[in-house]
């Protein structure tokens, strides 16, 4: 699995359409028609990436917002970005 390293900034790899509905991102890969959804925390990460935030900033904001320890958040954010890379929705 590809993983993002702290400090990496990613850009979209494929053409995707997305919208936040009831606090959760719904993402459609326009090329394949596949769709994905993210929970509230994943949505925060996704929208932050689209605003150009780097991984350390995303981790810091998530720690502040949800009160989870930094190590757990860093691992989870890196894992999510890695999964997005693996399915082709994000490219480092």
Question: What's the shape?
Answer: globular
Provide the residue-averaged pLDDT: 86
Determine the fraction of residues in helical runs and give it as a percent range.
Answer: 40-55%
Domains counted in the coordinates: how many? 1
Q: Kindly estimate the percentage of residues that lie in beta strands according to DSSP.
A: 15-25%
Quantity of strands, as a count: 3
* CATH classification class: Mainly Alpha
Lateral arrangement of strands in the main beta sheet: 1-2-3
| C-alpha end-to-end distance | 13 Å
Helix run count: 3
What is the N-to-C order of secondary-structure elements (H for helix, E for strand)?
EEEHHH
CATH topology: Arc Repressor Mutant, subunit A
Instruction: Give Rg in angstroms.
Output: 12 Å
Low-confidence stretches: 1-11
In short:
The protein has 3 helices and 3 strands. It is an alpha+beta fold and 92 residues long.
Characteristic key phrases:
92 residues; alpha+beta; Arc Repressor Mutant, subunit A; disordered N terminus
Q: What can you see in these coordinates?
A:
- The chain has 92 residues and is an alpha+beta fold.
- A hairpin with a 2-residue loop joins strand 1 (16-21) and strand 2 (24-29).
- Helix content is 43%, strand content 17%.
- Mean pLDDT is 86; it is low at 1-11.
- It has a 3-stranded antiparallel sheet.
- It has a single domain (16-86), classed as Arc Repressor Mutant, subunit A (Orthogonal Bundle), CATH 1.10.10.
- Helix 2 packs across helix 3.
- It has 3 helices and 3 strands.
- It has helices spanning 40-50, 55-66, 70-86, and strands spanning 16-21, 24-29, 35-38.
- The protein is globular, with a radius of gyration of 12 Å.
């Amino acid at each position: 699995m590809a993983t993002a390293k702290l400090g990496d900034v990613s850009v979209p790899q494929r053409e995707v359409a997305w919208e936040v509905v009831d606090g959760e991102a719904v993402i459609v890969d326009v090329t394949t028609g596949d769709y994905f959804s993210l929970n509230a925390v994943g949505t925060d990460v996704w929208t932050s990436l689209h605003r150009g935030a780097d991984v350390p900033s995303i981790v810091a904001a998530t720690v502040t917002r949800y009160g989870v320890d930094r190590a757990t958040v860093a691992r989870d954010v890196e894992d999510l970005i890695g999964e997005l890379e693996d399915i082709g929705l994000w490219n480092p």
